[in-house]
Amino acid sequence: MDNLYISVGLGLVLFVFLLWVLRPRKKRLTQHSFAKAMDAISSTSDLDPAHAVLKCHSAFIQALKSMYAGKKDMTAAKLVKSVEKRLPNTTKIWAFHRMRNRIAHESQGMVAPVKAKEARREFIRALEALK
């Protein structure tokens, strides 16, 4: 009878261990893609504000694409949606995503320098949360 309890206990421990090993893990940015995105975002400080927002957004999306390398059909919005629960600044990232769309698709895409600086700061903050 004691052997039965020991066997069941060991089986249960093994089962829990296998569940822990095989659990789905959160995708994280690699050190390389994080550094590449950080360099790209940091280099936008000399650009005009609208172009800086476009470049920051592009660097952020490229970093997200590296997390989902097997999925080719992921749009920028789908990528942001896939990680939004892990971001400390989700509403700001979505606001800058919409701003990027306005800049890219409207001829009068004007951006204040303060907004470009804020975009750099928020995209860096989001990247740090994903590494």
Short structural description:
This protein is an all-alpha fold and 131 residues long. The chain has helices spanning 2-21, 31-42, 49-67, 76-83, 90-105, 113-130.
The name CATH uses for the topology is Four Helix Bundle (Hemerythrin (Met), subunit A)
Whole-angstrom Rg: 21 Å
Per DSSP E runs of 2 or more residues, the count of β-strands stands at 0
**What's the mean pLDDT score?**
90
Q: Supply the number of helical segments.
A: 6
Task: Describe the overall structure.
It is a single chain. The chain is built from six helices and no strands. It has 131 residues and is mainly α. Helix 2 (31-42) packs antiparallel against helix 6 and helix 3 packs across helix 5. The chain is elongated and about 80 Å long.
What are the salient characteristics of this protein?
131 residues
List the helices and strands and how they pair.
Elements: H1 2-21, H2 31-42, H3 49-67, H4 76-83, H5 90-105, H6 113-130
